[in-house]
Amino acid sequence: MEQLLCENCDRFLADRFVEGTCPLCKYEDARGDQCDGCGHLINATELLKPRCKVCQKTPVIRSSQQLFLNLPKVEDKLNDWVDKSGDDWSYNAKVITKSWLKDGLKERCITRDLKWGIPVPLEDFKSKVFYVWFDAPIGYMSMSAVYTPEWRKWWQPEDDTKVTYYQFMAKDNVPFHSVMFPACLFATERNYTMVNHIMATEYLNYEDGKFSKSRGIGVFGNDAQDTGLPADVFRFYLLFVRPESQDSSFSWADLATKNNSELLNNLGNFCNRALSFLEKFFDCVIPEIQLGNDELTLLALVTRDLKEYTTMLDKAKLRDGLRLILSISRHGNQYMQFQKPWVLIKGSSEEKIRAGTVIGLSCNLVCLLAVMLQPYMPQTVDIIEKQLNVDMSTFLLNNFVSAFLQPGHKIGKPAPLFEKIDPSVVNQLKSRFAGKQKSQEKELALASGLDLKQIISVEQMEEAISKQGDMVRQLKQSGAQKSEWEPYVKALLEMKKSLDQMKLASNPISIDALEEEISKQGDKVRKLKEAKVEKSELQPEIDLLLQLKSKLSISKGMPVENGQKKKQKPNKK
């Protein structure tokens, strides 16, 4: 096949290192394997005006022998399967797959000329690796085999064994899971389990734009843990705004609003009030519950939402499932506010019994909510589990409300589940993740485990530089983009400058001696230039001269120049 070769970088270009204009929709920033503008899979050689993402030069086309999947051989079988299975897929998964099959399947290359990747186990192809989209889905089986030696019970089940198989992904990965991998499974003729539900999301944007790791726009997993917000708040919000049917946006202001209104004032308020009233009025012990008309009405509303919740999860509509949980806690808040158990407890003996019913039923709803929350907010559920003094693993959901907490059960110590997020925190986080700033860049560009603030000796800095250097080499060898490894290189250079300063501080050199060395080295450089020697011979001497000047600047307490003289501004005085 024909491939793109960057002569400037002297290598065949992986798809992610090529951009250009889509031949179908004319989107100007299409990738080498897929166009984000129209969603079609394309070959890198089909791009109009291709460019290397590393050096921005125009690559040339070169021929190379590769392995292909002969997809047309299983096209009829694949079409029949999609027609029968697609009804249980998300809408966009169905549309993307149908549009891909509509044009007819073509042979598809599965190998490429790179060093990074899974090597091809064939003698004539040892220098090549598989495309990740080909070998990665096979990893689903590998993971099952690591989990249990009986993995074939799921992947090649007996005829009387029913296996339901879900896949979750962003929409750009749909063709690899709805066409490529199923085609491979059909071709083996080994009766592998085929996916039943492909649940693809649209894109999640950031504030008014898009996430960009290279430009530091947006909050990513490694950033989220440093925000001070609990992981469950991120889990809740990301699932609340999950882009199931259309693109959605991550917004700090909206996250704070949802946290304060739904988690703090709705869910958290109901749980804390129910358990706190039980602690205050019944010494943490569940009282007798005598159901009346108001309780039956509440249970009817909760049962309706509970049944709908189960249906939504079966259909993998996670966002709707979460909103039904919040609907149940809202019913609980309204019920408690209307019944006023804090007033009833001060009344007659009948009213005190009534207060016990309201509080006891409310505590059971708290337990129900915790069971429903387990797939969404596991850390919060762990906290509720301790407050309820129960083992959540013993509870199963039915299509009706169960009495999880029997009369006489004693709960633990209640405490608020959530905290308010103030506008000042929102402004700070929004500013912090609006784009890469110097301080942020230095944080992000350090190898894992490095903290320059903890380094106090030359030996520690030399060890840190070694670790940072290893990080840079690993990134370059893995084929990472320049935008990914360049910040680490900048940090490495800064660390080396700091090392020079530390060495100078521990072994001070007189200014006179430095100036004399600079004068001698300057004469040497001038003579080499006059002799017009090769650059390879001249450059090391220039570098040495710059290092000496840098040491002189440090000794004098002056800013270090990076080999370029700054123009002096005239003194206005």
Provide a brief overview of the structure.
By secondary structure, the protein is mainly alpha-helical. Helix content is 50%, strand content 8%.
Could you outline the blueprint of secondary structure elements for this entry?
Elements: E1 2-6, E2 11-12, E3 18-21, E4 30-31, E5 48-52, E6 60-63, E7 68-69, H1 75-85, H2 91-102, E8 108-109, E9 111-112, E10 129-130, H3 132-135, H4 138-147, H5 152-155, E11 166-170, H6 174-188, E12 197-201, E13 204-206, H7 221-224, H8 231-240, E14 248-250, H9 252-282, H10 293-314, H11 318-339, H12 341-344, H13 349-373, H14 378-388, H15 423-432, H16 438-444, H17 458-477, H18 482-506, H19 511-530, H20 535-556
Parallel strand pairs: 11-12, 13-14
Antiparallel strand pairs: 1-2, 1-6, 3-4, 3-5, 7-8, 9-10
Helix pairs in contact: 1-6, 2-6, 9-11, 9-13, 10-11, 11-13, 13-14, 17-18, 19-20
Structural commentary:
By secondary structure, the protein is mainly alpha-helical. The chain has 20 helices and 14 strands. A three-stranded antiparallel sheet has the order 2-1-6, with no helix packed on it. Helix 9 packs across helix 11 (318-339) and helix 10 (293-314) packs antiparallel against helix 11. It is 50% helix and 8% strand. It has helices at 75-85, 91-102, 132-135, 138-147, 152-155, 174-188, 221-224, 231-240, 252-282, 293-314, 318-339, 341-344, 349-373, 378-388, 423-432, 438-444, 458-477, 482-506, 511-530, 535-556, and strands spanning 2-6, 11-12, 18-21, 30-31, 48-52, 60-63, 68-69, 108-109, 111-112, 129-130, 166-170, 197-201, 204-206, 248-250. The longest helix is centred in the middle third of the chain and has 31 residues, at 252-282. The chain is globular. Mean pLDDT is 86; it is low at 437-444 and 557-573.
